[in-house]
Design goal:
There is one protein chain. Strands 1, 2, 3, 4, 5, 6, 7, 8, 9, 10, 11, 12 and 13 form a 13-stranded antiparallel sheet that branches. By secondary structure, the chain is mainly beta. The longest helix is centred in the middle third of the chain and has 21 residues, at 147-167. It contains three helices and 13 strands, in the order αβββββαββββββββα. Helix content is 13%, strand content 39%. The protein has helices at residues 2-16, 147-167, 312-315, and strands spanning 46-57, 63-75, 87-96, 103-104, 111-114, 186-188, 209-211, 216-225, 228-236, 240-249, 252-269, 275-289, 296-310. The protein starts with a helix and ends with a helix.
């Protein structure tokens, strides 16, 4: 007991006479600087590797399985070089059902398309992504993919451009990245509360839709990716909802309704204005109505996406 008292009596005076700490002076000039995030991107080839992981969870939280979708996509300035709208080339698309064997999707190898100036092309396709390429899609073994996996392949292109084009590029009517000038700025994006159709071919009928919540874009700070100084842009969808009218067979209709919440970050180069990296996490809860027992099925899905802008050499090594 005496030794404890001795230690206490020695330490307390030392603490009382300890020198005061001083906060470090920080130059906030860079943090207060204005940035132009709406400048046009450099018209040079860009190479993107996108991986989407879709994990189904049981209602008790058990992870039941993960499908992995991988897209190798490039911005190709040679496509549509005399017209308006950026041209893209899908060099390769693979899917790993259950995170197992890797299956190629032959119909998408070197498939090209052009983004329309508006959100839809003259056939009503969202972002100009032709539905025909995803109807009765087959893998490299000649097996037709289930309609839900075909839809997720289609949706990978929509997701890519949601981040790279819709969020990371300026909008035509304001309320976009052009309104983020200083770190800390926020804006309710023009896509907030939008309701794009999600029908696809004969298996997902018209009347299907995804309704965004209040999408917030925030200028979170600065970072470095691929040697590029980048603006770090965060996005959050708010409370989103959807309805899918599915016809897996001609005489069978399944209607799924549910909610979604997705969020993530985008690193946009301050040098060439191209996205260098993007991430997303999404939680999806749905209830599907069946015309036979058990009548209803509930599902929980977690989706994660990572997109990396890589060099040409690295791109062709994947």
């Amino acid at each position: 007991m005496k030794s404890f008292r001795f230690i206490l009596f020695v330490v307390v005076p030392l603490l009382l006479h300890a020198p005061a700490t001083h906060s470090q002076s920080v130059d906030t000039g860079l943090l207060d600087r204005q940035f132009d995030l709406a400048a046009p991107h450099v018209h040079e080839a860009q190479y993107f590797v996108m991986e989407s992981r879709l994990t189904t969870l049981a209602l008790d939280g058990t992870r039941l399985g993960t499908d992995v979708y991988k897209l190798l996509l490039m911005f190709d300035p040679k496509i549509n070089k005399h017209g308006t709208g950026d041209g893209y080339r899908c060099v390769r698309f693979t899917i790993s059902p259950g995170d197992s064997v890797i299956l190629q999707i032959p119909v998408l190898k070197n498939w090209t398309y052009v983004l329309p100036e508006s959100g839809y092309d003259n056939q009503g396709h969202v972002l100009g992504i032709d539905h025909g390429h995803f109807e009765n899609i087959q893998d490299d073994k000649g097996q037709a993919l289930p309609f839900d996996k075909a839809y997720h392949i289609y949706n990978a292109f929509i997701d890519f451009h949601a981040f790279c084009t819709i969020f990371a590029d300026p909008t035509t009517d304001g309320h976009g990245i052009q309104d983020l000038n200083v770190i800390g700025d926020k804006v309710v994006h023009a896509a907030a509360f939008s309701q794009p159709p999600t029908n696809l071919g004969s298996h997902i009928a018209e009347g299907s839709f995804f309704r965004n919540g209040e999408i917030i874009l925030a200028f979170k700070g600065l970072t470095v990716e691929n040697g590029h100084p980048c603006a770090l842009i965060g996005y959050d969808s708010g409370s989103s909802a959807f309805k899918m009218i599915m016809h897996p067979m001609p005489d069978l209709e399944i209607i799924a309704v549910g909610s979604s919440h997705y969020w993530g970050d985008i690193a946009k180069s301050l040098n060439n204005q191209w996205m260098q990296k993007a991430t997303m996490v999404e939680l999806v809860i749905a209830e599907s109505a069946l015309p036979m027992p058990p009548g209803k099925i509930n599902s929980v899905v977690e989706r994660t996406i990572s997109i990396h802008n890589v060099s040409k050499d690295a791109f062709y090594q994947f």
